[in-house]
Design goal:
This protein is of the alpha+beta class. It has 16 helices and 14 strands. The radius of gyration is 39 Å and the shape is elongated.
Length: 563
């Protein structure tokens, strides 16, 4: 069994890895014109200090200390001649700083100065700055004012090339993030709608709803973290959404754990969870009410996240060891563990990067994509398990209900069901008709031919009854040889004609199987005949008329002797 579970988990991981690499390598890209990396040979001035021949991807090597707010960073270099490139642009990514771009001391681009002057939040973004066609040999200079402490200590590679090529290369380098992010958004929205649609059929609906929202926030976070949306929205908005979705991850984990787990010490758990959920709320308050930007309090959230991951790890090992939660929750727990583990590794890569230990960037993207896709796969599996179990439970309940309210021999409704149906008629406005039916000579058949023949007599009549009266008519066996038919809308039905047809069907059966004679006595009554009375009185009137007919048949035809 353990080997089977391991194989199942390994299969999901393998499929997720394959999906990640398909995303990365299926959508190939080849630039039509050269794209140059402007990494080396920059002159950098930080406040009043100037550094020559700087590699801007390793700017931290010349920094004496961490950058602080209001620090001014300028850097310039000479643009190379790369031939005739249409629509030339220069691509640069800034982090929490303004940007002014000069070409031979002529301002050609600026961003964020007004927000910086108003002490507003400046985020991260890619800038695509158009260059004139004769840019070669000119000096490009970037001036930046830092808006956050330790805003950056290096730059991503600055590129020059044709705008379609530069943007295409950036898109291709983030293709797996783009596909994963938008997939998680679409998946989460779709399953949110599906779960709400089947809200009455799924027992673990709250867990599934939280999981669907979690998928939406995951997709939004990774798209904003890698600045995929910076070409479509303002940097402060994108970065703000990045932090806000990031800071909801731990509360989501606490909520999902509480819904899935049998928490032994609920008081202690709720205290820890409340603190863990309160931290992001306080970060939002500090940002929006007091201007302490979300980036400043990021280390506090990292600690909160590690505590949350520790709790997920603790409960996951307990679940997999004791099997103490349902199968659906086990599956979702595996997805939550995988995501939190990948998110923790992703955090480790981020911390190592801040310590100038560079990690292969596609690895970081692959890790977070793997965690998201694995969680989505488990969310889908959990949903299918819940739907399957709900369907099985519904079938079982229907079966038990059928056993409780169905006659075991004829499969018609039994007396309990007929009593309930008669009671419901009292709330109806229909002019219904109740037909009381009694088999003639059943005891004699049992005495002469045995109870098997008597049972066959009953089941044969039940078939005739079903063929005579449609599915919209209530039919029941309420005793050994007693039957009941209720027609809700009797105004459009000729009851006498239906009874004649039933008797004709019995006569045909008598001709084909003449071992014994089959016949019934019937009596019927309408609601309007018992004005102001209930269904029980209508039934009694029908039953009285049936017995009158039965007595007449016995007297006139001697049915009890013709077997």
């Amino acid at each position: 069994m353990k080997a089977y579970r391991f194989l199942r988990v390994a299969s999901v991981i393998l499929l997720s890895i394959i999906a990640v690499y398909i995303c990365r390598y299926t959508f190939s890209f080849k630039a039509e014109y050269p794209i140059m990396d402007l990494d080396k040979g920059w002159t950098v001035t930080i406040n009043s200090k100037t550094y020559e021949d700087v590699d801007i991807t390793r700017l931290y090597e010349v920094l004496d200390s961490k950058l602080a707010r209001d620090d001014r960073v300028s850097m310039w270099t000479t643009l190379p001649d790369d031939g005739d490139i249409p629509f030339p642009v220069i691509q640069i990514k800034t982090r929490y700083s303004t940007l002014s771009c000069y070409l031979d001391d002529i301002l050609i681009y600026e961003n964020g100065l007004m927000a910086y002057a108003n002490d507003e939040f400046l985020g991260k973004r890619y800038h695509f700055i158009s260059l004139p066609s004769d840019y070669a040999g000119k000096t490009v200079r970037f001036d930046m004012y830092v808006s956050e402490k330790n805003a950056f200590n290096s730059f991503e590679s600055i590129k020059v090339g044709s705008q379609p090529d530069v943007e295409g290369q950036l898109t291709h380098s983030n293709i797996q993030i783009i596909i994963t992010g938008f997939f998680m958004l679409a998946f989460g929205l779709a399953f949110l709608c599906i779960t709400l649609f089947f809200i009455t059929a799924v027992h673990e609906v709250v867990t599934l709803l939280i999981g669907s929202l979690f998928c939406i926030f995951m997709g939004t976070y990774i798209l904003c973290y890698y600045n995929v949306l910076s070409m479509f929205m303002d940097a402060p908005h994108e970065t703000l959404i990045e932090y806000m979705t990031l800071y909801t991850m731990v509360p989501f984990c606490y909520i999902m754990l509480y819904l899935m787990q049998h928490v032994e010490n609920k008081k202690l758990y709720l205290i820890v969870a409340s603190i863990g959920c309160l931290i992001p709320v306080m970060q939002y308050i500090l940002h929006f009410a007091f201007g302490i930007h979300l980036k400043v309090t990021l280390p506090v959230y990292h600690v909160d996240g590690l505590v949350g991951f520790g709790l997920v790890l603790y409960y996951a090992q307990k679940n997999f060891r004791k099997r103490d939660i349902p199968n659906g929750d086990m599956i979702q727990m595996a997805g939550l563990l995988a995501f939190t583990a990948c998110a923790t590794i992703h955090l480790g890569i981020y911390v190592l990067g801040s310590m100038h230990i560079q990690i292969y960037l596609p690895l970081a993207k692959g890790i977070i994509s793997l965690g998201c896709l694995y969680f989505a796969t488990c969310q889908l599996a959990n949903y299918l398990v819940n739907i399957t179990e709900a369907y099985a439970t519904k079938k079982e309940n229907m079966s038990l209900t059928h056993l409780a309210y169905a006659d075991g021999l004829t499969n018609l409704a039994n007396r309990a069901k007929s009593d309930s149906f008669l009671e419901s008629l009292n709330d109806s406005e229909d002019d219904y008709c109740i037909i009381s039916i009694d088999l003639n000579g059943l005891k004699a058949v049992n005495d002469k031919f045995g109870h098997i023949a008597g049972d066959r007599y009953i089941t044969d009549f039940a078939k005739v009854l079903g063929n005579t009266f449609g599915d919209d008519t209530f039919k029941a066996r309420i005793g050994g040889d007693e039957f009941l038919v209720i027609i809700r809308d009797s105004s459009v039905v000729d009851v006498s004609a239906l009874i004649e047809r039933m008797n004709s069907a019995l006569n045909v059966m008598n001709a084909l199987y003449p071992d014994y004679h089959r016949s019934v006595a019937t009596g019927y009554a309408y609601r309007h005949e018992c004005e102001g009375k209930g269904s029980h009185e209508v039934y009694l009137l029908a039953d009285q008329r049936m017995y009158e007919l039965k007595r007449k048949m016995h007297e006139d035809l001697g049915i009890h002797t013709r077997l």
